[in-house]
Amino acid sequence: MTLRRFTKSVDGTIPIPALLYDDEELLSSQEGVGIYDGLQKSPNHQSGTVHVTTHRLFFISTQQAFAYSFAMDLSYVGQTDYYAGLFKSSAKVTLYILPSLTVAADSDASDGLDTPFASWECEVCAYRNPPGLSPAAARVCGLCGIPRDSVPAPIAAPSPHQLLSSLPASSSAPSLLPPSSSSGSHRRQPSTIACPACTFLNHPSLPSCEMCSTDLPRPTAPLSMKSAPSSRPASPDSSDNGDDASLRLIKISFRKGGVQAFYNILRRSLKSKAWEAGPGNSTASALTDPSTTDANRSGITGILRNVENTAQGRETDMNNAFQDLEALSVKAKDMMRLAADLNERLTASSTTAATASSAFADDALVPSTEPEEATFIRSSLSQLGLQMANTPVTLDMMNDERRWIEQLARELAGVLQGAPSAREAHGMMKERGIIALDEVWGGWNRARGVALIPPATLLQVVPHLPTCTNPTIRIRTFASGLSVLHTPPYTHVAFAARLSGLLALSGPKTTTEVAQDERITVGLAAEMIAAVEADGDICRDDEACMIKGGGAEVRFWGNVFHGYVWDGQARTEADDVSY
């Protein structure tokens, strides 16, 4: 039978990751599947889970995982087929075994060399290769690439399974009677007949399929009912005939869906042929000359190529990891959008409920409580880090760039002055009337999380702030190039008038004293004082110019010379007019 010849029994009680080779990777799994051995259902494999890896196909039985679980090498599969199912017939994936492997499978089953789980030492570089590699990778040295010397298989008594599976390939096969006469006496009347079109199991008395009306194959009558002589060995079962194409297949029946995704992954695994990573493998040894591949992996060249392949694989893994991060970023944006939508709905619902409660209780104090579902959703969003009331505005949310800039201006206004609906505004300028633009950029990006804003976009947003803020926030750039955002009390005219009045009432002031009075930094105070001095409203008294003991500091005075009428100036002007 196909399952007996091309599969190996595994212990299904062991987790699948523990059954894999070191260079093997699990690709996909699907529950609720059954196995067809050829065209007939395998009675012991009708409920289980199928796993596909880069090298093998696993079936783990649900009922008796230890006895009826098996693994099959994907190198045996030469062709696949897909059936979507019809009515009560489940979807199926058919695996056709390569004809050239029918004899090779029997010889591999009888071979006593177990390379995957054996450690061996290379005779060239003395490197001890670790166990757990796939058969292809275990046949060559992992360091120098020299193939492992062939070890003669131990002589062991052939098992009945080996005798039975080797009969079709033996030289005595032609001496047997024709299959129709030898197996006819052992053939029993089948209890059901599988439809060749939809695989529905029909009663043997029906001439056509009960589901699709396709003509059913009729069992051939035995030519002779005589039993074989006792001196002649028993004829092999017709199901072991590897030359019959209809019997060299395995069907996987998917009774719980998932066939399309599993079939796509299986095809990709078959196309990649990861089991051919090593030069020596039973599948390709008859088709390719291993000497050319061994030469490429031997010596210093092989070691350098091995290191290069390792580095290239590491780079590929890093690129895949970055692609996964990009996909995660896209998913994170969707989650943030969903969280914002949920928060807005919960806020609206809570506001409506509070309004309704206050309407029915005029004199009583009704506490504003949220439903249990709303509390659970808010706590879940908080644990996921999605507790932001509003998601950051991004360009992909808006079709128009101008509208996007306006939305960013509203968002920045909320960062600077706080939410308008909040009782107490907690923005960056809650107690400050002026702030540097670089500090605004850093605080805004910190509030946006991963959706960062470049400085060029910030400069486009700032001119729209006056229409979105109250009191109005504007941008100002000093002569040194420093840009700040300020409220109306910190405009040039307002500050100049306030500084002139301070100097007139309190006398000269230093830059540090002005900074303390205005509650701003010393550097920012120096920039603003320099702008007022450039207009001629104040003048400086530099004590460092005179010889004096102790420290010296610049003091600013009100400019009493500005607008002063000197003696003779009025007369000179009158004389000029008279002339």
Automatic annotation (TrEMBL):
Residues 280-299 have a biased composition (Polar residues). Gene3D superfamilies: 6.10.140.260, Pleckstrin-homology domain (PH domain)/Phosphotyrosine-binding domain (PTB), Winged helix-like DNA-binding domain superfamily/Winged helix DNA-binding domain, Zn-finger domain of Sec23/24. Belongs to the VPS36 family. It comes from Mycena maculata. The lineage of its organism: Eukaryota, Fungi, Dikarya, Basidiomycota, Agaricomycotina. Component of the endosomal sorting complex required for transport II (ESCRT-II). Residues 10-282 form the GLUE N-terminal domain. This is Vacuolar protein-sorting-associated protein 36. It is found in: Cytoplasm; Endosome. Residues 166-188, 220-243, 275-299 are annotated as: Disordered. PROSITE patterns: GLUE (PS51495).
